[in-house]
Design goal:
Blueprint (H helix, E strand, L loop, with lengths): L26 H7 L8 E2 L5 E2 L5 H16 L15 H16 L13 E5 L6 H10 L2 E6 L2 H12 L2 H4 L2 E5 L17 E6 L7 H14 L17 H4 L4 H13 L6 E7 L6 H10 L4 E9 L2 E9 L2
Parallel strand pairs: 3-4, 3-6, 4-5, 6-7
Antiparallel strand pairs: 1-2, 7-9, 8-9
Helix pairs in contact: 1-2, 3-4, 9-10
């Protein structure tokens, strides 16, 4: 089992070597690729180009440009108030997952349509399937409990026929189920992945947003938006928060052990790992991994498990 790595003091930790989003954003190239980004870009006090990361429209425009420039995704968009994830970190999850899958193929990363993955809670943004297909040719099923999210992602797929042929969307009608009702008999998946709801309640989400705004120096004493990266209720919180959601996923995964090679899920709070690892031991997982990731000074990780 691996442990989350830490950067050297004062030095940002690197992204995965295959991640296309190394270093600072190339705003001139991004604006050439996506002119709609231009109104949101301005010099910082140090003279560098950047955007206001507390502006949801600016973040959405940046994501659209990043996906177009680095991954060839056209006309990506999401409705207002849906989760707009940071692209470099999401790409890192996929590259580290590719390394994990390569362990079973003699160090060779499996590519192409025969490698099928399930994205649990794909959302309106569909970032994991889009990048996973563009980078590795993987095919995906994306599930979500929100029809509006699937409809929005469907519009992006309609604008990208190559992606549409590789990504199937499925509605999860039972908000308490994760794999049941989505995984069909006889289907086989190399892995599942998930960005789980982080917060335990709406109030918890607001407190988290307030902390982010303080860190960005944007507090004014006024009420802040729920999250500068947006997000519907099901994307942001569930009773018990991240730990409860992943524990439920662990319990349910046992029933689908023969259909999935690796179950994986992001874990935002490192303090949740002992609880989740104990849950996996109770379910008799044959192997448990904690795969460390980083984006600058931000440390992240995903939990991976499988059954013999």
């Amino acid at each position: 089992m691996t442990s989350p790595r830490r950067p050297l003091p004062g030095r940002p930790a690197p992204l995965h070597p295959r991640n296309r989003h190394q270093g600072s954003y190339d705003f001139p190239a991004l604006m050439r690729t996506s002119p709609a980004l231009r109104p949101f870009v301005a010099p910082t006090p140090r003279g560098n180009l950047s955007i206001d990361f507390t502006d949801p429209q600016a973040v959405r425009a940046l994501n659209r440009a990043l996906l177009a420039l680095h991954h060839g995704v056209r006309d990506w968009d999401i409705p207002a108030d849906f989760l707009c994830p940071p692209i470099p970190g999401r790409a890192d999850y996929l590259h580290h997952l590719a390394d994990l899958l390569a362990e079973g193929t003699g160090g060779r990363i499996p590519r192409g349509a025969t490698t099928r993955l399930l994205d649990v809670g794909t959302g309106a943004n569909g970032v994991y399937p889009l990048i996973g297909f563009k980078e590795y040719g993987w095919h995906f099923v994306g599930s979500d409990i929100a029809p509006a999210a699937l409809d929005a992602f469907g519009r992006t797929l309609a604008a990208n026929p190559d992606c549409a042929a590789a990504i199937e969307l499925r509605h999860q009608p039972d908000p308490q189920a994760i794999f049941a009702g989505i995984l069909q008999p006889g289907e086989r998946y190399a892995a599942t992945l998930c960005n789980p709801p982080f917060h335990a309640s709406p109030d918890d989400a607001v407190r988290g947003s307030t902390r982010k705004w303080k860190n960005l120096g944007k507090t004014t004493g006024k009420q802040v938006p729920l999250l500068n990266f947006g997000g519907q209720a099901a994307e942001l919180w569930c009773p018990g928060g991240e730990a409860a959601f992943i524990e439920r996923m662990i319990r349910e995964s046992r029933a689908f052990a023969k259909q999935v090679g690796w179950f994986t899920c992001l874990v935002s709070k490192v303090s949740n790992l002992p609880l989740l690892q104990a849950a996996l031991r109770r379910e008799q997982a044959s192997e448990i991994r904690v795969v460390a990731m980083a984006q600058g000074q931000k440390q992240s990780r995903f939990l991976a498990w499988r059954f013999g």
